[in-house]
Amino acid sequence: MADAVDTSAVRAVPAPGLPQAAAPGRARLAAGHLALSIASLFVFLAAWEALIRVGGISTYLVPAPSTVIVSFGQDLVSPNYWVAVYTTLYEILFGFVVGSVAAIGLGVVLALSPLMDRIFYPYIVGLQTVPKVAIAPLMIVWFGFGIESKVLIVALTSMFPVLVNTIAGLRATEADRLDLLRGLCASPMQTLRYVQIPNALPYIFAGLNTAIVLAVIGAIVGEFVGARKGLGVIILQANFGLDLASVFSALIMLGVIGVLLNSAMRVIERRVCFWAGKRRQ
Predict the structure, then answer these.
(1) 240 in a domain, yes or no?
(2) Which residue from 31, 171, 239, 255 has the highest number of Cβ atoms inside 10 Å of its Cβ?
(3) Are 71 and 246 in contact (CB under 8 A)?
(4) For residue 230, which of 209, 197, 205, 254 has the smallest C-alpha distance?
């Protein structure tokens, strides 16, 4: 009799594979969203092409999608174009790393020291308020037309969201956890390492996701002001020559770079903050 009860109890337990049954459904839903996005893109491009051809809009004002695609294909086989892409990507990544590391370090100091926060935070906000287009010429004068000035511009552009989110994440630590560590005689560094930083990681990655997109903008702003090579230089040259197809081609490449970098940052976030239990649809 006991065996029968035990057997029924075992059979009543859900199979281990049942929690994973929703995975194919999520995959189909994601595939459906992707197909819908691609379809909407094709509809938009078709409407754009028809408007140019039927509406008689001058290609000097707005190029047709077919012209942009041809120009983009020509750019992809040009070695000089890939040199420009590499230069801009290097400025983005280097400046993003410099700005993010500086922002996280400064955020820790300001979050743990109210006195430092009251002294320096207004200056940081004031620096962020100044348009980077106004600061970029000074960077060019001080650091020249090389990559150094662009890296600094990117760092200044991308550091503020990381700084704000770092401070918010460190201060959002539950008071009960801090009291527990104080009761266990933990040092401030141990509290920071084992409680506050893990608690702040989702906040920090939220700032990093924003900063990586702003880094692309900062690099182009720096190249617009003064640079020898880069996608910003290609856009300026194409504008001067009224080659709008090349301008749109460079803009497409910038969009692709931004999407790829943001996607990579989200993948890193899921690996690092796996314990946060975030779900992205």
Answers:
(1) no
(2) 171
(3) yes
(4) 254
